[in-house]
Amino acid sequence: MLTPRHQALVATLAGMTVGVAVFGTVLAINRANGPDTATQVVSTPSTTPSTPGPTDGLRADSLTYVTQTFGTGKAPVTTEVPDGWTSVQLGTKPKFVDPTGVWQIRFDTRGSKQTPDDLVSARANSIDEQDLNVLSRTDGTLIYTYVDKVRGPRMGLSRWIPADGGKRSAIEITVGGRPQDQEALKAVLDHATDSLQLPPQDTGESGDTRPN
After folding, report:
1. pLDDT digits (tens, 9 = 90+) for 74-86
2. What end-to-end distance do the CA atoms of the chain give, in Å?
3. CA distance 93 to 169
4. Which residues pair with 142 in a beta bridge?
5. Which of 94, 104, 120, 179 is deepest in the core (most CB within 10 A)?
6. What's the predicted TM-score (pTM) here?
7. Is the dihedral of CA 102, 129, 160, 136 positive or negative?
8. In the structure, what pLDDT confidence band is assigned to residue 137 with cuts at 50, 70 and 90?
9. How many other C-beta atoms can be found within 10 angstroms of the C-beta atom of residue 143?
10. Reduced to 3 states, what is the DSSP secondary structure of residue 159?
11. How far is the C-alpha of 101 from the C-alpha of 95, rounded, in Å?
């Protein structure tokens, strides 16, 4: 019979034997996966968010407005146009263009003895552009598309503000852009209409003696 001392010695030797066996197994595995074995690396592709630009279409909710005054000293006209759209001409036929040159708004403050509906029809019949398509011509507003030889597909919205109870027209407002900008262009046109302040003679209280 083994004494307690001999039993402890046997247990120690058995533990050392198991440890050596495990170490040998680990060493064999490491050698199998040595430097000559390729390691597969899985990478996740990164995505870069797109930057909005003119190709994405004009957004009505991205616009803020500033007040502009034009016309003549005796008959000034005031309205609001998109902030950042700069004037390329003033006077009675001012035009404001965005920095990219894609969108614009222009005015003709000279007025006309013709009614807004008459001017809508006249403009629709006089536009000489490729692939002209009249989308709407109601309430003194003409909406149309065409193809520009340089800029490609374009859209225009022209509105004539009535005076003298609709017997004549006080001012023309036209916005231009592309077909994908339609909702925002209409918002620009409506804002210019709603903020428009005309001189007293264009409120409909007196007749217009200016030429067509």
Report:
1. 999 999 999 999 9
2. 131
3. 15
4. 137, 158
5. 120
6. 0.70
7. negative
8. very high
9. 20
10. strand
11. 12
